[in-house]
Specification:
Strand content: 15-25%
Shape: globular
CATH topology of the largest domain: TIM Barrel
Structural class: alpha/beta
Helix content: 25-40%
Number of strands: 18
Radius of gyration: 22 Å
Oligomer: single chain
């Protein structure tokens, strides 16, 4: 079977008037994390002919991407699988429609978090949509299993619950060794290759995030020793820094201490993401001693009213205490703040901007100078709240993102506040 896996490009043109910096001004030449979701699938299909294209770098037009897919499948049956988030949905949907018009014998499949969120929409653009964990489901589809028996597999008129089953021991994860052996068309110089997932999923309930819906508040852990084998392999390939890219690397303290002990033996630098409340007076110095060089946290706001409203699970004092520990133990840190939540006041936006400005004076702080602006992401609680309360200012690509009407501050006023307070 000939398979083309596509990471689509982001569509930017009609977002410019909203001055959304995170979407519009990403540096194309910056090192990027490998799109591991698609590559996990690639590594499970080694008996097939697999081609991968990251169109974020190639920047093929829809027409050129169509030509690329057709050339690599040539004659006979084939499958084109699309990944990506809501930002890449538009190109994936357009190219899938184009493929079906000229080669109806080619099967198109859409997977990932965005596919999981609203399959009833996406089945109108793709032959199949895979919800939840897609590695096993895609493999079963490719190998001809009865589609009605494939977990998470949806098509027009047949919408099912997401697949939440994943056995790490049965799947080959995309270490650099596996990817090199498959001769995939990847320009590795574009990527930060030290990215590793030691777990996937999230057990928390942030109202602005769809993760709890996508993962059913579950976390799937890889065997720690298998992860460490991968770390050793990457170090032997010449990589000096490893990034544990999952949201909850620090959630299990016993497991985290074990990683710290073993990573210290390997003698490699590493970074990770963490919830601020998962860190304390004991674990931060342990992490630093084991080679950790930076921790990224989702701070979100400095206002307790907003943190409570979005269900973040920490307070402004937790943020300040965590930052004091980073400073005390010499740990570099970064993280995100968001302003413009549906009920946020002008003063609360000012408070967060002022706090960002104050902590950026610290030498160890790598927090971006400007906060992100809130966007409604399908199918988070706040997304649904914005819809139900008629607070939509701009509906982008049929609900892929919602730009909102804040109850007190206009979009232009929020932009002016950010520019005034954070420069």
């Amino acid at each position: 079977m000939k398979i083309v896996l596509v990471q689509p490009d982001q569509i930017e043109s009609d977002l410019s008037k909203y001055n959304y910096f995170d979407l519009m001004k990403r540096k194309r030449k910056a090192k990027r994390i490998l799109p591991l979701g698609l590559l996990y699938i690639a590594s499970s299909l080694q008996q097939h002919s697999v081609v991968f294209v990251d169109n974020y770098f190639q920047r093929y037009s829809n027409e050129k991407l169509l030509k690329f897919c057709l050339q690599n499948i040539d004659t006979g049956k084939g499958v084109v699988g699309f990944g990506g988030t809501c930002l890449e949905w538009f190109q994936a949907a357009c190219v899938s429609k184009m493929i079906k018009k000229v080669r109806p014998d080619i099967t198109t499949v859409y997977g990932g978090p965005n596919a999981t969120a609203r399959p009833e929409k996406h089945v109108n653009y793709f032959d199949y949509v895979i919800r939840g964990v897609g590695v096993d489901s895609f493999k079963l589809l490719i190998n001809g299993h009865k589609k009605e028996n494939i977990s998470g597999l949806c098509w027009c008129g047949h919408i099912v619950e997401p697949c939440f089953t994943l056995d790490f021991s049965k799947n080959k994860w995309p270490t650099l060794k596996i990817l090199e052996g498959m001769n995939l068309k990847i320009n590795y110089s574009n990527y930060s290759l030290g990215s590793i997932l030691s777990s996937i999923g999230c057990p928390f309930q942030c109202k602005f995030c769809a993760a709890k819906y996508i993962w059913n508040r579950s976390v799937f852990f890889r065997d720690a020793d298998e992860v460490l084998k991968e770390v050793k392999y990457l170090k032997n390939k010449g990589l000096h820094v490893i990034h544990f890219r999952e949201d909850n690397f620090t959630i299990n303290k016993e497991r985290l201490y074990y990683f710290c002990k073993e990573l210290k033996k390997i003698n490699i630098r590493w970074t990770c993401q963490s919830r601020i409340k998962s860190l304390d007076e004991y674990i931060i110095p342990t992490m630093k001693e084991s080679g950790c060089r930076e921790i990224s946290c989702g701070f979100e706001s400095i206002n307790d009213s907003i943190l409570s409203y979005v269900g973040k699970g920490h307070t402004s004092e937790d943020i300040k205490y965590g930052i004091s520990l980073f400073e005390k133990y010499g740990m570099s840190y970064t993280g995100g703040f968001i302003v413009g939540f549906p009920n946020e006041t002008k003063q609360e936006i000012i408070n967060t901007c002022n706090f960002i400005k104050s902590i950026r004076k610290n030498k160890l702080c790598g927090v971006p100078a400007k906060p992100s602006k809130f966007l409604g992401i399908p199918v988070s609680e706040l997304y649904n709240e914005v819809v139900n309360n008629n607070q939509i200012e701009y509906n982008w690509n049929d609900g892929e993102l919602l730009f909102i009407k804040n109850k007190e501050v206009t979009t232009n006023e929020i932009d002016k506040l950010i520019n005034k307070m954070c420069t």
